[in-house]
């Protein structure tokens, strides 16, 4: 570490502390009895597993956190699979195929990304109501497909893949579809994994739409369930149970991100996997 | 093995004409080199033959078949790319066997044929590796293996050696020549390097600005360049191209002179209409030799010693510089005054339009 770097390290340290302190406090107090949180202290003085026991059995207000995690997992898997199935071919068509009107259609697709999602809520709700899907997982899953950000990331990546690679495959006898499936998709693996992980995080953390479209504890997703716990007006809110629920339900994503971050960094770099 | 017939081939990119009418016959089993400066259209022409680029005009026949509209994969043609274009997610074995896999060749048969190709190219020990774990020369081998495994009628190479270092280039050059002899297939090889063209080709096609400048064997091009472009392009060091005046001419030869050149004769028949006119005299540096009293005199401005030969630059009093390649054993030094002469049968004359006289 050279001396000029000291100020930079200090700034990074402060930023890291600012980011870590609330997280650390959340985790620490999730292991404390609920009375601890009202005392004036940074670190709890008594410890217990009971919050986690309640998260697993009875979190309150009829909410089942395990059920919510199951719902969220089903929704997440369905959305990630659906997003990839739709985004990959779309990105390929926008990035590497030539067809009339391509750039204009892509522009329209991008415009949908620029519009705040809240604008769609009413018409989407209406649509789901017409289809009789309100308060079901399908109503949570469908509006998330496809994801324009994913199309955008994958398109950038497909565009950067060398033309000669595709031509070599053609000379080897590949049809258009074989070029796509056997050469282009495998080469785009880093970007595909990136989009998959980002979509999983997005799906797991998505709050507003599931809150609107679901209302019974049986179909709630994780963020909705946790927020439901803290929105009780009648009873005394048990904060430490909520902290435990928040930490426990974010564990799957923390693990996913730890495994996926190498790919996310690489997947953003266009020539990843080529050289 | 198949021959090719190009008739009036044109290529336009929008309004820009890149290939301006090419007529060319390639015999079955021939090693043909397209050579020319960067941007002259070599790759474009090769890619049209491959089926990777649409043909704007003219007719391309491979064997007996008109192939203008035939898809690349149905032309019986294989190509080695300048960047090799290996599939980075596949091992060398999978790269080489990819074409067979697409053709539905059973796995065992595929493995057997990949081994066979690997043996020919001496790369059996590389088969398990991915392209990222191979050196430039090894990637080159895999790329060639991928081309030869399907036993195509015609091989296309686009500057395949330009990413290799000099020593490896010489090795691969010989290896490609050997491969051509072994396979007996028709090969079309694109390069901007006239040394590669001279050393490997049965037939050289010199291209410039989208047109064929000359077609011939290496020695034909070297000894009888059809125009100034070919004269300057083929041969290293470059031919001296000097402005001279025709003083007299008949069927047997011509008398020429210039401020830097004492009146002398060349054995080129020159039309009498050109008497009194300026033309270009072409003399290869290797044709010039030191003489006690030659037609060109001057002082040595530069000596480049290559061992067996030395290249010297001689500056004449008239200001014209001339390059000569002389025996490396001869002692010469800077500023030494020397005199150069040449065999009148080995001088080339090019008329006002730049074509050979
Ligand atoms: N896709 C293209 N669009 C427009 N012009 C092109 C394209 N490809 C090549 N050219 C032009 O065609 C000419 C010949 O290119 P190329 O065949 O690659 O030359 P070479 O291989 O001899 O260096 C160049 O002037 C190049 O700029
Ligand atoms: Mg080229």
Instruction: Give the end-to-end Cα distance of chain B, rounded to a whole number of Å.
Output: 38 Å
Residue share in helices of chain B? 10-25%
The CATH architecture of chain A can be named as Orthogonal Bundle
CATH top-level class of chain A = Mainly Alpha
Structural class computed from helices and strand pairing of chain B: alpha+beta
Q: Return the CATH topology of chain A.
A: MetI-like fold
Rounded radius of gyration of chain A (Å)? 23 Å
Helix content of chain A: 55-70%
Order of helices and strands of chain A: HHHHHHHHHHHHH
Radius of gyration of chain B: 24 Å
CATH homologous superfamily of chain A - what is it?
Answer: MetI-like
Assembly state of the chains shown? heterodimer
The number of E-state strands of chain A comes to 0
Give the CA-based shape of chain B: elongated
Number of helices of chain A: 13
Mean pLDDT of chain A: 86
Q: Can you identify the CATH superfamily of the largest domain in chain B? A: P-loop containing nucleotide triphosphate hydrolases
Q: Largest chain-chain contact?
A: A-B, 21 and 24 residues
What is the CATH first-level class name of the largest domain in chain B? Alpha Beta
